[in-house]
Amino acid sequence: MSVMPQPAAGAPVRRRTHRAWWSLLLFPVSFAAAMAVGEGTAALLGYSDPGLAATPWWVIVTSAGLALVVFASPLAATARLSKRAVDAGEPGAGAPLLVAGVAVGAFVLVNLAGVLLQLIAQ
To answer: What's the pLDDT score for residue 52?
Structure first.
């Protein structure tokens, strides 16, 4: 039988869990940054004009990959804060990490579908 550690005396209960939930507010910012990075990468490589015949596959993959890395970056903060809350024995501390993981997973699937559709359409 394992004993879960209790929060320190005088410390607000669930404070670490609240911080983990607040860290999810980084995702809208990272989403905007990911869009800018994805489009900016293609533009820097000379493929920003939608009238161009075909964008090479490596430009599509590079832009999407960089955008995914930028979007997923807040996952590290959420994971760290959730782990601290779990270690402190706060109930429901893993939920923010689950939400962040689902958001990143959905972003990956949507972008993967978009990349595949672009590559098929060429």
So the answer is: 53
Q: Which domain holds residue 24?
A: 15-47+55-121
82-90 long-range contacts (CB < 8 A, ≥24 apart) are 82/17, 82/20, 84/16, 84/20, 85/14, 85/16, 85/17, 85/19, 85/20, 87/5, 88/5, 88/7, 88/16, 89/4, 89/5, 89/6, 89/7, 90/7, 90/13, 90/14, 90/16, 90/17
Please state, in angstroms and as integers, the Cα–Cα distance from residue 72 to each residue in 26, 29, 30, 67, following that order: 10, 11, 8, 9
Q: Quick check: pTM over 0.85?
A: no
Residue 29 lies in a domain: yes
Decide if 31 is inside a domain. yes
Q: Is residue 85 part of a domain?
A: yes
Q: Express as a percent the part of the chain with pLDDT over 70.
A: 84
In a domain, 5, yes or no: no
pLDDT over 80 at 48, yes or no: no
In the predicted model, what is the mean pLDDT of residues 72-88? 93
